[in-house]
Each structure stands twice: as structure tokens, then as C-alpha cells.
Task: structure prediction
Amino acid sequence: MRIGFLGLGGMGLPMALNLVRAGHEVSAWNRTSSRADAVRAAGGQVAGTAADAAEGAELVLTMLADDAAVSAVVFGDEATEGFLRALPRGAVHACTSTISVALSRRLAQAHAKHDQGYVAAPVFGRPQAAEAGQLTVVAAGAPAARARCREALEALGQTVHELGDDAPAANVVKLAGNFLIAGMMEALAEAFALGRKSGVDAAKLLEILNGGLVRSPLYQSYGTMMAQERFEPAGFKLSLGLKDMRLALAAADAAAVPMPLASLVHDHLLSGAARGWGDRDWTAMSRILSEAAGL
Amino acid sequence: MRIGFLGLGGMGLPMALNLVRAGHEVSAWNRTSSRADAVRAAGGQVAGTAADAAEGAELVLTMLADDAAVSAVVFGDEATEGFLRALPRGAVHACTSTISVALSRRLAQAHAKHDQGYVAAPVFGRPQAAEAGQLTVVAAGAPAARARCREALEALGQTVHELGDDAPAANVVKLAGNFLIAGMMEALAEAFALGRKSGVDAAKLLEILNGGLVRSPLYQSYGTMMAQERFEPAGFKLSLGLKDMRLALAAADAAAVPMPLASLVHDHLLSGAARGWGDRDWTAMSRILSEAAGL
Amino acid sequence: MRIGFLGLGGMGLPMALNLVRAGHEVSAWNRTSSRADAVRAAGGQVAGTAADAAEGAELVLTMLADDAAVSAVVFGDEATEGFLRALPRGAVHACTSTISVALSRRLAQAHAKHDQGYVAAPVFGRPQAAEAGQLTVVAAGAPAARARCREALEALGQTVHELGDDAPAANVVKLAGNFLIAGMMEALAEAFALGRKSGVDAAKLLEILNGGLVRSPLYQSYGTMMAQERFEPAGFKLSLGLKDMRLALAAADAAAVPMPLASLVHDHLLSGAARGWGDRDWTAMSRILSEAAGL
Amino acid sequence: MRIGFLGLGGMGLPMALNLVRAGHEVSAWNRTSSRADAVRAAGGQVAGTAADAAEGAELVLTMLADDAAVSAVVFGDEATEGFLRALPRGAVHACTSTISVALSRRLAQAHAKHDQGYVAAPVFGRPQAAEAGQLTVVAAGAPAARARCREALEALGQTVHELGDDAPAANVVKLAGNFLIAGMMEALAEAFALGRKSGVDAAKLLEILNGGLVRSPLYQSYGTMMAQERFEPAGFKLSLGLKDMRLALAAADAAAVPMPLASLVHDHLLSGAARGWGDRDWTAMSRILSEAAGL
Result:
């Protein structure tokens, strides 16, 4: 399949390589072009612009940082021509970035207007999972468009959940997932602060509670980082976590759903950002709770 | 070992029976005496008062509803003589109830004054786990006292975590555990409300998020109840969950630890109680979030 | 002075009339033109478009509903040509609407690019205060631009606070003011719910607390509406209050200032909107608190 | 009238002196007796114990620090005999301290059992207001008991609000009042933090918002302290404010009224206490908000 791949960051590059290895004809583009060398070395092509990568493609996959980056690449901005006009009729754009529900809806409409398909296909997983082709993908969009990109998505993830026809629903799921993690961090951070001031070591508390009660590998890995207070290097930056809570709250606001816990974790991440911790791991949020307790 | 067992409710009765089966000489007491028949049938003895059950015992285990019940049974009230004076010097009281940190500290002091041992030994698990001897026990107290009751506690639970010399620390762990569950419920409830108003079914959202991300049997069971909105019969009553959040907040207040998420779930449980849902399962708390979203 | 006045709603019409009465040459425009008749009757002119009203004006005042309306009138949209190009060099745009800090900053930049002045001049007060020329105006922007519109603003309000050179600062003050009111409503609503469930009538509670302690006419008028639970007709619509809390939270987010009380009142207003109360007075927010208490 | 006055702290002493000056026969007692000299100098008597002061009195007024102090003085503890038995039948206890709703109810029952009257009569105002006889008093209790102490209460305060027969209702009003102040501080603190990070000076913001909108002397005085960040010497200690928020939350919990803003301010005061600010003025709570914003 002829695939344009846009965005070769920590997540995008291994994803693009997996598509090359799966036998697809990949034409990759990245804003800073040096990242594209690895794609060429693996047998893929490198495009000079996003529009070039989309030219003649059956599918374009985007893995970009945020709404602004996706919007620029699709619709263009002062610096770039977007790929919206270059993408052939009938081709599909599968957007794997974590973007807002509002932008996802706008993309669905814009592609429909150009007789193109659009699938929201956000992914769960860290770069290691991307390398191993073990991401979890959540895909939503018109059935024909989903069918079109199924094989490619399966090359990226061990599980592809298909969610239905309304593309933004997949973005809601992704944001809900990151919110669940943030909520877990908040709960652990408060429990750890209570434990510490009551003579119970955080690591011991985690061992007992996750061992017998919760039994989640997610609690284990996040909880261990928080118990050890090792926030660098970042697995997922606090500034990105903050961005995702903003997107979750924006989706909630638009849907008229009060999410007080989301506001709470947003505020703790925002306070972390205000203190200059934007580049630390987002588990650093737990320091806000410790400091509130005078620890 | 000669064991007095006080409190034969849904948790206490199977625990007492397991001690009988493990070969201990159990003398059991319950405020409403009919519950004691099963103990007699299994080969145990039935005591007329809490003090009688403690008379000559090496160990007294208590499994009672709340602070008031434990306090009455230990110190006595208008209706009952407490067992504090009847318990022999050198014997140990292991308190398995979910009680306040403050009462636990008071018990430690009172038993020490009477040359008795005290172990805080709260348990995690539902009645089925109690029947199967598969509770998780967290035990704290003086080493000698802990040693004294180790065998009995091992007859109750598959895992016994020993936590150190300060008895109330075990109560903190128990309260932190129930708080973690409540925090998880809050996060799921908000995510479900957002999902529902965005066209994503709660069961589907749970399947995706717990399947690939959290992978916790706790999320699975609680999340399923919340997705199905089946709140009766109660696995754990909302009124009891509210009680535990009160105890967690009281411990946090005494330790000068702000726990905003604990306040949040407390408020949602309190609102449930105000609406007359005290006897429903505490997952009914999720209805508060749904209603806030106009669902 | 030649003044273009854009937006003749409940606030804008009396403001425009006051400018006519103060002797200014007013050319007024409104999206639905029937509202302009009163201006003509008073001796003002009526413009066919926003751009016409700005043509040849020394000052343009805008009093429009929200960001979208202001943006459309300044920059244009599918339906309207904006007045940005029509406004003469050296003329000033004084924006009296409650808009976002971000849009205010964008307006400052756009007008500067066109060698025009921009003053953010949001107003406090209801339509009655507008009629009486007793609004409170907060004005910020370059000194020359502020000097240019001083006389006109003084015709609108009994007090004009000049705040400095950075126009968006005035918008922050306006949003902070509406947030203070919302915070007061939250506090009163919680106190009233506690009072009611403790046998203390809300009106009596207000009488005691505002009479002896707070002594604020604002508490008196809002508190009375909340005590009587008369939410219709709306003095200030819940949907507009919600909009302003969104703007306050957006400003706070951009400035990295956690505002947990703002999130709290946002959530209560949002829940009101979710229940279909958008057109009631925003004091209806207190019903959310009453219902939470089972009242 | 023969009046026993118990508690001669910063508030109690000027209150006792006002009663002497109003012509009452006052027998005063204080735990540290040196405080009583001023009463003797003014023409009052000094009692050796609380019980002595109550002996033969028609009315006993208590102005003590907290629940523990009131409870000790009424019911006795290891150090003191309480005055409950010494107070003549038909005499009245008017409790002016800020105590819990629960203790107030217990006092009402205990005095009724001894055929004595009980009036909850908490006061609003600082020591200067006590000196000037300008406190605001809120009195509740049986009509006959209220009638009995009316004259004495009028000697203390410029306004005496009578609230009805249920004594604890007056305590609810007092707690609601202190909660309103705390809520106002939270709102101002958030608004100030937003202002500061947006280039608007706190004092200026206060001037505009309180000047034109709120117009409350309470906002003025508290807001000025917060704007200047002068937290010492304390007008009202943070630790006492924290105590009152605990009492408000306890009353709310017992009445099944979620009060999320009360939880919020409680947490900020608690965090202040955790940082060692218990003896600063409770407006120091605003530092928690400033720090959260990285100020």
C-alpha cells in the first residue's frame, strides 16, 4: 500500500519503520528532515513536503505533537503547504496523534468535503511499544475508511479497537485513558503523602496495595516512579500531560460533563508547569501533593 | 491456641470458622447471639459476653462494624462490659476492623497499660475471600505481639504483610487502600460520563482502557458494576464507604495532609447518602457524576 | 466626537443613547437593524454595516455578546465585512464587551498593525446602570488611545478606572470581577444548604451574615435571589456566567495560575447548563448545591 | 444580675468588663488566674474554680477556645471540676464560644437534664469590637432561657439576633459566617494570583472590584492584608481558622451537605499549618495559592 507518513518523532519514526518492514511503500516527511534518514535506510522514501508525501498515496498517517502541528500539516500555515489538496480523492487520512475532539471533528468535515476518508486512530503506548509494534490503537471513522487503513494499523499495534463511525469518539477514548492515568497518579500521590506522614514508606504502601488489591502493571510502574521521586529523564513530559488534561477538559466542557477530578489534576500539572517542571516526567505532579503536606 | 473471637457478621463468621477449622480453641461472641450457632456447630464455643470470650484467652480477635462497636466491646458501654479487664496479662488483641487511626492509637495505649499486646490487623477482601481464607492482612504492632498472632492471622489470609511496630500504621494502609478504590471509581465515573455524552458506551470504554492500559481485576469488577449501573444488592454499602472516607480524611487532617481527591469522593458519597442511597453499593456514587452531566 | 457604536443589545443600546445625549455624533449598527430605530429617534445615525459605522469615525465602541461576535465584526466573517480596514488611521477601537484575554491581545496587535489605537474597556453593571450612565469602566491600552476615548467612556460610567498600557489587563480585571461574584454565590449556596438542613432559613442567614459581617449590596441582591430561588427572569443568564468562567479559566491556564474555586463554579454552572438551565439567572447554580444535599 | 463568667482571653476579658460596667454582679474565672485581676479592679469578683463562679449564679457565660476547653469547664476533666452540678436549677448557661454543633447539642441535653437553661450565643467580632460592646451576637435556645440572658447579651453586642429554640442553629450560623469569610479569601487569593501574573497589582484589583462591585468593609480589610501579604501579627490565627473549617465540615457531614468550597479552604489552611504557619493570620492562606502559581 502506498502510505504517506508525516511526523517522525519518538513515536512516529518507529511506527513508520514498522510500516516499511511490513512491506508498504512509505513516503515519509518530517519538519526537521534529518529524522527521515532512518526511513530511507530501511527502504522507504523521503518526501520534501507533507503535500509531496500525500501525492498519490492511498493512506496518510500523521503522528504529530499537538493540534497546531496537525492543523499546519493538513491545512497549511505560513511555512508549509498542507496536504489536504494533494491527497487523492478516495484516499484516507488516519490521524494517530492525541488531538482535540474539536480538531478531529473539523478534520472529518474537511476530508469529507474533499471526498477523502478520515479515521481518528490515536494510540496508547510509549516509544518502546511503538518499536515493538505493540501499541494499542483505537480507530473510529466511516466503515470504508476504517477498512482502508486496517492493515496498516495492525502493523503498528497488537490490538486495534474499532469504535464506530464517529471519528472524534476515538479521541475521547484516548483522552479518557490519559485522564485515568492522571487520576491514578493523584490518588497515589495523596495516599503516599498520607503514608509518609504516618510512618508508612511509599514503596511499601505500593507493594501492599498494588500487590493484593489493584494488581495493575500501570500502577506498578507509575507508582514506583512516584515512590522513588525520579522524575528525570521523562517518560512522558509534564507539559504533554498538561496538554492532554486541557484537551480532556475542553471535550468535557463541550459535552457539558463536569469532571472535577480532571480539574484537580489539571491544576496540579499546571502548578508543576508554573514551577518550571514542564520537562520532567508527569509523575512529578506528586511533588505538589507532597509540598502541600509540608513534606 | 485459645482465641476469643468478637463479631460474627458477614466477615467475622467465616473468619471465626476458619480459626476453628485450623484447630484453634475458639470462644466466639456476637451482640445478636443467633449468629454464634454456626461456630458451635463447627466445634467452637459460644461466650455470653465479650469479657467471657476474653477470659483466659491468649488472643482476642475483633471484627466489628466501626469505632463505636470496637470501643464498646473493649472499654464497655451502658449495655456491655468491655473485655479490657478480662483479657489476661500478656495476651494480645488483634483488631481486624476498619477503624480510625485515633482509636487504634488509643487501643494501643490502653492495652499497654494493662500489660497486654495490641496488633492492628485490618483486612482487605469481601466475605467470599474471608470464607476461602484468602484475605490480605496488614499487621502492625510490637514484634512480640505480632509474633503471638501470626499463626492465627495466617489462617485468615493468603498474605500477611507485617508493617512494623506502630500499630496505627496498619490502619493508615487500610484506609489508603479504600481511598485508592474510591479514587478509581471517581476517575471511571467521570470518564464514563464523558464517554456516554460523546457516544462511547461505558462497557466499551472499560474494555479498551482496562484491557490495554490498566489491566487491573479491580477496575474490571468495579468498572463493570458502574457500566451496568447495578447497585443492588450491595457488595460494599455506600454508607460504609462514606465512613471509610471520613476516617481517611480524619487521619489526613491529623497528619496535616491535604487530600483533595478524598474530599471529592467523600462529597459524592455524602451526596449519595443525602439522596437515600446509603444501602446501595458504593459504586452508586457514579450516579452523582452522571446526574451532574444531565444524564 | 464622531463615534461608531456596534452592538445595540440590552447593554449597548442605552450606552449608545447616552453618547448621543452627551452630544456625540453617533453612527450605530446592529446585526438585527430594528434595534437601531431608537438611536435614530434620539438623533443618532444608523449605519448599514459595521464598516460603514467605522468609516470616518474617531472612535468605535463595541458592545457585543462574545469573542465570536467581536471577532466577526472586527475581522469579518462569511456574512459581514469587518471594520478593521474601514477605521481611519489614528482612530481608536474601545472594546467594552467581556471577551477573552487572548482575543483582546490579538485585537491590540491587529489595530497596531493598522496604525489604529485599541483600548480594552470592559464594563461592570446591568442594563439599568447602563441607562443611568452609572457603569464602572476599566480601561487599559496605550496612553494616547486612552486619552482619545476618555470623554466618551465618562459618558457611560460613573467611574472609569485607567489601568495602564497593556490592554488585556482590563479584561483580566473584568473576568476576576465576575469570578468574585461566582465565588460569592458558591459560598452562599453552600452556607444556605447547610443552614437549611440545620433549621436555619436562608433569608435569615443572609440577614445575619450580610447585615453584621459582610455588609455588601452585592451579597444582598444575589443572596436574596438565591434565598428566594427565583431564577426567572434572568438578570444575567447562566449560560453567560458559564462563558465568563470559561474565559477566566482560559486566562488562568495561559498565565499558569491554578484557580480551583473557578473550576468548582465552572462545574456547577456547566451542570446547570447540562440540565437545561442556560436561560435562567446564574444564581440558579445554587440549585446544584441544594440537590447535592438532597434538598 | 448574678453572672459567672468563664474564660478571660482576648475576647472574654473585655466582655466580662462590659458586664461589670453594665452593673451586673460578675464572678469571673480563668484557667490562668492573673487575667482576672482586671475584673477585680473593675469591681467584679474572682472565683477560684469554674464551679465556684457558677454557684448561686443566674447566668453563666463561657468564652473559651474550643470544644475541649468548653467541655472541661462544663463536665470537668482530670484537672477541673465542671460547673454543671454547681449551677442552680433554673439558671442559664450562655455559651459564646465557637464550638461544634455536636457539643452544642450535647450541652443543651445535659443542661436540660439538670433543669438548667442553655443558650448557644456565639459572637462575631474581634477583641476591639468586644471592648466597644459592638459584637454581633446570635442566640438560640428555649424562649425562657433566651429571655433570661437577653439583657446581658445586649451589654456585649450592638446587635443580638435571636434565632429560635434549637440552640445548635446559632452555632451553624457562626460557622457559616466564618466559612463565608474563608470563601471570600479563597476567591480573592485566586483573583490576586491571576492578576499578579497578568500585570495587575493586587491592591489595584481590590480597589476596582471592592470599590465598584462588592463594596464590603470585610473585603476591604481582608483584601488589604492579603494584597500587602502582612500576616503577622495575626488578627485571627490560621490554626483557629482551620479549627473552624473543621467544625463547619463536621456540621456539614452530619447534616449530609457536601461543601466543596469548605473542603478547598480547609485544605489550604491545612497546608498552611503543615508548613508551620499556624500562628500567622489566616489570610496567609493566600500564599498557598500564590505558590501554586509559581509566585
Remarks:
- Chain A has a mean pLDDT of 96.
- The domain at 172-292 of chain A is CATH 1.10.1040.10 (N-(1-d-carboxylethyl)-l-norvaline Dehydrogenase; domain 2).
